Amino acid sequence: MINPGTAPIDGADEELARANLDAFLDAVRQRAEQMDEVPIRQRVAHLDGDPVRDPGADRDGRFGWDLSMSDGRTIRVLIPGVPLAALRDDITAVAPCLYVNGNANWWSGAVDSVAGEGLTLNL
Q1: Can you give the chain as a three-state secondary structure string?
Q2: HSE (side-chain half, CA atoms, 13 Å) at 56
Q3: Which residues of 27-39 are buried (b: 16+ CB within 10 A; e: fewer)?
Q4: Is residue 38 a contact partner of residue 118, using CB atoms and an 8 Å limit?
Q5: What distance in Å separates the CA atoms of residue 58 and residue 9, rounded to the nearest whole number?
Q6: What is the pTM of this model?
Q7: CA 91: distance to chain centroid?
Q8: Segment 27-85, tens digit of pLDDT
Q9: Which residues contact 122 (CB under 8 A, 6 or more apart)?
């Protein structure tokens, strides 16, 4: 079965994607704070610096940015250029997916994926 959220987006807009990126990064920071409160986890890296736009990564109505981590890694995100409410729709399975390092995720999964990038478990 093909996830309808991965379909190409007609009429996508880069400015909407840029605004969505700001909301996405705010959500990532909030989620990272929540994850840090779990005692068996330790943050070894965090988002560091400003996102870097990479038009060469654009595809299917999604616009590419590289996010730098404090440990030198880079996370590639592709953000759909649609209204934010459409991205955050967690009721239907038709919301456009974001891509994090090539993996399709709906909004919450993408937030969790980026927020969890700098965590290790202390077992």
Answers
A1: CCCHHHCCCCCCCHHHHHHHHHHHHHHHHHHHHHHHCCCCEEECCCECCCCEECHHHCECCEEEEEEEECCCCEEEEEEECCCHHHHCCCCCCCCCCEEECCEEECHHHHHHHHHHHHEEECC
A2: 2
A3: bbeebbeeeeeee
A4: no
A5: 12
A6: 0.90
A7: 19
A8: 999 998 888 777 767 777 889 999 999 999 999 999 999 999 988 999 999 999 999 99
A9: 40, 41, 42
